[in-house]
Specification:
By secondary structure, the protein is α/β, with parallel strands linked by helices. It has one domain: Rossmann fold. The chain has helices at 3-6, 32-47, 81-91, 103-109, 111-120, 160-163, 169-174, 190-207, 223-226, 230-244, 253-256; strands spanning 53-57, 72-75, 96-102, 125-130, 179-186, 213-219, 248-252. The chain has a 7-stranded mixed β-sheet, sandwiched between helices. Strand 5, helix 8 and strand 6 (213-219) form a beta-alpha-beta unit. Helix 2 (32-47) packs across helix 8 and helix 4 (103-109) crosses helix 5 (111-120).
């Protein structure tokens, strides 16, 4: 069999979604962001909503998301993505609107924005990447940093008496009546990535059903900030992040009815 036979459509096993651009991703090897970008792009393509989707990227490692996924984008100031998404969605209620935010962005400077967007029940999807650290700016402690976890600003480990306790945001916002779908997933294995992809799709579908805000948390790695290899980072995440941030659905108003 020659190469042309192998390339025939009937032999195709997988093809890159055309929504992913040819831009070389700037993420570190082993970073979860690239996988999540791929899942988002695939979902949008499979739903046939490329021209109906608007993404909001704030400041952080995900700031250049608009370089990689070929849809309409707006960039928000640090932490303000839910506020901007609110405006975009209310002006264009037929659009699929989502934010793509890290833990330093959403749980720190953006706490007010996410809490009040949830309380208002804005019909948007929030994709929340939780790797427990500020990745872009030097590996500082984030609100989600685990107790005992070493960062550039907690070199001896996070101390509750000095630094407070980690913020577990998903169960908090699940208590707000404006939230419709809250789930926590990961992308460290193929099976996990498939579940994360299904969650992203459900969040986008809910965003046009008028049932409230959907929140997909992805427990992720930052092997550069954690000073671990990609393989070691995945193992560390499972052993240390998952007990504090367990994987699974937390709230689903349509399923629970």
């Amino acid at each position: 069999m020659n190469i042309e036979d192998i390339k025939k459509p009937e032999n195709l096993v997988y093809s890159k979604t055309p929504l992913l651009t040819d831009a070389v991703m700037h993420y570190c090897p082993g970073c979860s962001h690239g996988v999540v970008h791929k899942l988002v792009a695939e979902v949008i393509e499979e739903m046939g909503i490329q021209d109906k989707t608007v993404g909001i990227s704030p400041v952080g490692c995900s700031v250049f998301a608009y370089n990689y996924i070929d849809i309409d984008w707006q960039q928000a100031a640090h932490g303000r993505a839910p506020a901007l998404a609110t405006a975009v969605k209310r002006l264009n209620p037929e659009k699929y609107v989502f934010t793509y935010q890290g833990d330093g962005d959403l749980c720190s400077i953006g706490t007010a924005e996410i809490i009040h967007a949830c309380a208002r029940g804005e019909n948007i999807l929030v994709i929340f990447i939780n790797n427990g650290i500020y990745g872009m700016t030097g590996g500082q402690m984030a609100p989600t940093t685990l107790l005992g976890m070493k960062t550039s600003t907690t070199p001896y480990g996070r101390d509750a008496k000095l630094n407070g306790f980690p913020m577990v945001i998903a169960p908090m916002i699940a208590e707000l009546d404006g939230t419709a779908y809250i789930t926590r997933q990961s992308v460290h294995t193929a099976a996990a990535a498939r579940k994360a992809k299904a969650a992203i799709r459900k969040g986008l579908e809910y965003s046009v059903k008028g049932v409230g805000l959907s929140f997909v948390e992805i427990v992720a790695t930052c092997n550069s900030g954690w000073k671990l290899s990609p393989v070691e980072a995945n193992r560390w995440m499972v052993e240390n992040m998952f007990p504090k941030y367990p994987i699974g659905d937390i709230k689903d108003v349509l399923k629970d009815k």
